[in-house]
Structure to design on (321 residues):
């Protein structure tokens, strides 16, 4: 862009007043005895001519760029990428939980019913959630319990604790997450107490979920819910992740399995029908699992650690360019 010296001088003067001195466009217009739209055009021309180059100097700029890429590529309502460089897994989980608590606390408008799944990252979210007074909030578990192990991260317990933090009420799902037979599952799901909770779960205003990888660092495997024979079958069928004991492949397509047929809880199809599903994830070993869930369209809001977000963006880098 070829600009005469006199014009360039004016552009530099306007840009300096606007960006360095903090003057408003109206103040500059008054000083230079022109209209405010003229100043607006001069500022834009200074940018176009390369006189003004804007740099954002902050450690958050990288995570914000990752958020924008994730939102654009996967059509998310929001992505929150949590800085986690140099953190231990537990520290990163807590940071993601804290970010989740902050996000939810500031996005409660119109929310009456909340569904919550299970897991350690959601456990940190509930721990970090502030005590608030919110009238008429009800929290429900999105699947049954899992015996006596790690009770503190079961959906029923998390629903109870979150309801306390919000000064709301909660409903319990009085059933195991996985039962012995499909017939027993069907009988239990017809019981009024169980069906009424699942009915609310299918229509919640906000669903809080975690995402698991059955093959790496799986809490289900550690707790003995997934045996080697189960893992072998899931591997053969291409399962890369699960949400509430429901498994899916790399494209997000639900995987049919005898184990899944015995789960008491919200299905992936029912989850996908919800308009506000918030996923909290930590750990780069879950990259393929999160990617599958994103491709399946199960998530509207993703709250994730920086390393895992980077891994996802790298994996789909060609599509993001």
């Amino acid at each position: 862009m070829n600009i005469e010296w006199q014009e360039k001088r004016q552009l530099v003067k306007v840009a300096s007043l606007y960006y360095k001195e903090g003057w408003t466009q109206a103040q500059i217009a008054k000083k230079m005895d022109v209209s405010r739209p003229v100043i607006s055009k001069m500022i834009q021309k200074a940018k176009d001519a390369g006189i003004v180059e804007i740099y954002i100097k902050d450690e958050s700029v990288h995570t914000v760029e990752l958020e924008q890429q994730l939102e654009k590529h996967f059509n998310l309502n929001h992505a929150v990428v949590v800085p986690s460089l140099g953190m231990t897994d537990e520290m990163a989980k807590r940071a993601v939980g804290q970010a989740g608590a902050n996000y939810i606390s500031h996005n409660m408008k119109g929310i009456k019913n909340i569904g919550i799944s299970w897991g350690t990252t959601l456990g940190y979210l509930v721990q970090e959630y502030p005590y608030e007074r919110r009238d008429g909030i009800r929290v429900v578990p999105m699947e049954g319990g899992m015996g006596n192990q790690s009770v503190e991260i079961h959906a029923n317990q998390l629903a109870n604790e979150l309801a306390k933090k919000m000064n709301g009420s909660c409903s319990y799902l009085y059933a195991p997450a996985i039962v012995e037979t499909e017939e027993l599952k069907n009988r239990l799901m017809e019981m009024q107490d169980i069906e009424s909770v699942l009915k609310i779960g299918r229509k919640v205003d906000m669903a809080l979920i975690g995402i698991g990888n059955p093959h790496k660092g799986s809490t289900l495997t550690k707790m003995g819910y997934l045996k080697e024979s189960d893992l072998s079958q899931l591997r053969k069928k291409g399962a890369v992740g699960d949400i509430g004991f429901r498994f899916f492949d790399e494209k997000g397509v639900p995987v049919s399995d005898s184990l899944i047929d015995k789960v008491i809880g919200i299905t992936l199809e029912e989850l996908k029908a919800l308009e506000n599903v918030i996923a909290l994830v930590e750990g780069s070993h879950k990259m393929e699992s999160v990617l599958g869930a994103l491709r399946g369209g199960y998530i509207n809001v993703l709250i994730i650690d920086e390393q895992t977000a980077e891994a996802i963006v790298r994996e789909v880098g060609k599509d993001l360019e």
In short: The chain has a mean pLDDT of 88. DSSP finds 15 helices and nine strands in the chain.
